[in-house]
Design brief:
Elements (H helix, E strand, L loop, with lengths): L3 E6 L7 H11 L1 E7 L3 H13 L4 E5 L11 H13 L6 E8 L2 H6 L2 H17 L4 E6 L2 H10 L5 E3 L6 H9 L3 E4 L7 H9 L5 E3 L6 E2 L5 E2 L5 H12 L3 H16 L12
Parallel strand pairs: 1-2, 2-3, 3-4, 4-5, 5-6, 6-7, 7-8
Antiparallel strand pairs: 9-10
Helix pairs in contact: 5-6
Length: 264
């Protein structure tokens, strides 16, 4: 059984999350990065991670789609909560930009960029990696991350332009493969093009996947990300699992579970 790492899951949105995590562990998942999207979400993520120490690694974030109606005071409270709890957290995320027309109607691009800039500054100051949402905003998201001086970042579920992908790789950042790599052509192209040493696996659970047959994901479905990546990269399952799990450990840095044995 290959040891795999789910580097992006919304555990606070999953019903019966403890049973879900038990199934993931039984399936060979050795760790899950649990991402937050706003203060209530971050609080919940911290509670789940406390119950699952050494398996769930919390990341505290402020998702661009959750900024509707926020004013400066609310942003300050959100940032203060993240900073106050980073001592027990491993990353800042989910953060980023979302240029979908429904989002920018309620959250203008410039406001999104201002908030992302503050979050990136916080992450750099506290030396935490960032987990980046960049839907239809790939160029701006990469530019802001690079300009912030952030040393470690993941552009999760990447479906963007080939030139932006090259910029991500050249900057030493990661992209991640989801179960959508089974069928989504833009995502498949990105996973195929990314070098294994810059590729991670994730589920974005509890997102729904599939076309002919739909299913709601959980962290155990990171095995579908693995198998899709194996097919796209023409590599063995052990090779892809080794590279991506090693990448997840490097992203998290000190304090990851000793069960995740380093591979030279």
């Amino acid at each position: 059984m290959s040891a795999v790492f789910d580097t992006h899951a919304h555990l606070d949105q999953i019903d019966e999350v403890d049973s879900c995590l038990d199934r993931a562990r039984e399936a060979g998942v050795v760790g899950v990065i649990a991402v937050g999207t706003d203060m209530p979400s971050n609080e919940n993520i911290l509670r789940i991670a406390e119950r699952w120490r050494g398996f769930v690694y919390p990341a505290l974030g402020l998702h661009p789609c959750h900024l509707v109606g926020f004013d400066a005071a609310r942003i300050s409270r959100e940032l203060a909560f993240i900073e106050d709890n980073l001592e027990t957290s491993y990353a800042v995320g989910e953060i980023g930009l979302d240029y979908h027309k429904r989002t920018v109607t309620d959250v203008p691009k410039e406001f999104q960029k201002e908030v992302l800039g503050e979050l990136l500054s916080l992450a750099r100051r506290r030396q935490r990696p960032v987990l980046v949402h960049s839907r239809y905003a790939w160029t701006d998201a990469l530019r802001l991350v690079v300009e912030s001086g952030t040393s470690s970042a993941v552009f999760h579920w990447f479906t963007g332009l080939a030139g932006v992908l090259r910029g991500i790789i050249d900057a030493g950042y990661y992209v991640s493969a989801t179960p959508a790599a089974e069928y989504h052509e833009e995502h498949r192209r990105a996973v195929r093009a990314a070098p294994l040493e810059r590729l991670l696996l994730e589920t974005d659970a509890p997102v729904w996947y599939g076309r002919a047959e739909r299913y709601q994901s959980c962290p155990a479905d990171v095995l579908r990300s693995l198998h899709a990546t194996v097919e796209l990269k023409c590599e063995s399952e052990d090779t892809v699992a080794t590279y991506t799990t090693r990448g997840a450990r490097r992203l998290l840095g000190e304090g990851v579970s000793p069960d995740n044995e380093e591979v030279s």
